[in-house]
Amino acid sequence: MEFTADIGLEVHVQLKTKSKMFTRAPYHYGAEPNTLTDPVVLALPGVLPVMNKEAVRKTVLLGLLCKCKIAERCKWDRKNYFYPDSPKNYQLSQYDQPICEGGEVEIEMLGASRNVMGEHRMVQLTRIHLEEDVGKLTHFANDSLVDYNRAGAPLCEIVTEPDMHNADEVFAFLTALRNNILAAGLSDCDMEKGQMRCDANISVRPKGQKELGVKVELKNMNTISGVRNAVAYEIKRQIHAVTSGEAIHQQTRRWDPSTQVTTKMRDKEESHDYRYFPEPDLMPVSIGKEQLKVLAKELPELPFDRQRRFMETLDLPYTLTSVLCPDKELADFFEEALEDTGGKVAPKAVANLIANDLLRELSGGEEEGRLPLSECKLAPAHIAELTLLVEDGVITKQIAQTIFTEMYATGKMPSTLVEEKGLQAHNDDGELESIVREVAADPKHEKAISQFKEGNTKAINSLIGPIMKATQGKADPRKIQEMLAKVLG
Ligand SMILES: Nc1ncnc2c1ncn2[C@@H]1O[C@H](COP(=O)(O)OP(=O)(O)OP(=O)(O)O)[C@@H](O)[C@H]1O
Ligand SMILES: [Mg+2]
Ligand SMILES: [Mg+2]
């Protein structure tokens, strides 16, 4: 029997704000445990919450980015539970009136090969609401430690419809969502720092059956590829269970990255009744139409929209755009460099230097991870000047490579390096002619030259290398060819 899998995600994203959701205690990653707290975070008697406006603003931006319907009015609810990660015994969240409803995220599936664009489609969202994060527990053999630094940090929860059907779609969704959020500067989305966390709900049903199967919720995945592996494993496990006549029970399972399997944490029956009720100490929030118009202007161009623009209006190949566009910083760098050339250089030449040469230097030969652009000595103006020097024939493409490495290391402008090292292209025809004559006179090229004279124009290609070498790479190969033809008649 064939099966269809249905997957819905609950993605938690920590917003980049200076202070916490309902108090002015600061929040950032990596501080000494329990140093980012105050009476509100620790829920001492008599404290009252005060809403962080910036967190609401960023959530509305996230909603607009995901094309959600932004509620005119939303409110806060208490989600009651008893666990040491929350000193209040409840979490402030939003129950029946979230800030954002509906919405969608565009995803791209893998193409047939690296230089072919994959299929695009929309993944439907259910809602996005804002809540506060909880503390972090670390368990030991006999006791546990709690760190309340994270408690009360603004946390967006993005809930999708069960609209994904395999692990690759889940991977594509999380990648696209993360790129969009990074482009808008709403969060750093570092999964390993817990800034982006994902629970995956998975069910399977016989192909053709309308109603969805019983869902299992997966937790504890801390990389996007970890989520992909966990989902792929869980779909296989459920199909295997169903075909062996076993029923799937609603439960929560934990992904173990070291053994790459999911194991049961708890059954649905053990799950909590949260007794949600409206928070009496906070007013509902209204978001006006005028405010929405102002906020909409702050949104960046979405990475996929930018990619289409680069392909359509700048005629860049898909491969280059797929390197530049997911990373807003890199795409901005490219556009600035292109602008600096004043339209005199083909966009592809500029894009190539950034997507190939610059990234190669930034990654220093490593497969994954690279230096951030902000730590690099190059500005867009360096790239622009280098492409202009080649375009104007001041240096050859070969020399541009040498200069690139040098300017990356030193931060010196390419024109300075050309001057300092005398790397100008061979524009002195007389000098080039004498080099060409000298090389052509070498008896070892006799055969090639006679073949050329008999009409085999390609025969002299073997002379270009030695001539290039004699000019120390400073002559344009096209010019060498012209000169050779002239000298050999
Ligand atoms: N049958 C299903 N198969 C796969 N995913 C599902 C299914 N039903 C719901 N989901 C997904 O699970 C997520 C949460 O669903 P839902 O709101 O129903 O449950 P919840 O908030 O986890 O709480 P509870 O499980 O107590 O209802 C959503 O992303 C939704 O798309
Ligand atoms: Mg939640
Ligand atoms: Mg859930």
Can you give keywords for this protein?
489 residues, binds magnesium ion, 10-stranded mixed beta sheet, binds adenosine-5'-triphosphate, alpha+beta, Arc Repressor Mutant, subunit A, Aspartyl/glutamyl-tRNA(Asn/Gln) amidotransferase subunit B
Put the structure in a nutshell.
By secondary structure, this protein is α+β, with helices and mostly antiparallel strands. The protein is built from 15 helices and 17 strands.
Structure description:
By secondary structure, the chain is of the alpha+beta class. It folds into three domains: 3-294, no CATH class; 302-410, no CATH class; 429-488, Arc Repressor Mutant, subunit A (Orthogonal Bundle). Helix content is 38%, strand content 19%. It has helices at 53-65, 167-184, 224-243, 289-296, 303-313, 318-324, 328-340, 347-363, 380-391, 397-410, 414-421, 429-441, 446-453, 461-470, 477-488; strands spanning 3-14, 69-70, 73-74, 77-80, 90-93, 100-101, 104-108, 120-132, 136-139, 144-147, 154-160, 196-206, 216-219, 251-256, 261-267, 277-278, 285-286. Strands 1, 2, 6, 7, 8, 11, 12, 13, 14 and 15 form a ten-stranded mixed sheet that branches. Strands 5-4-16 form a three-stranded antiparallel sheet, with no helix packed on it. A two-stranded antiparallel ribbon has the order 3-17. The longest helix has 20 residues, at 224-243. It is elongated, with a radius of gyration of 30 Å. The protein starts with a strand and ends with a helix. The mean pLDDT is 93. The site of adenosine-5'-triphosphate has 15 residues, from strand 1, strand 11 and strand 12.
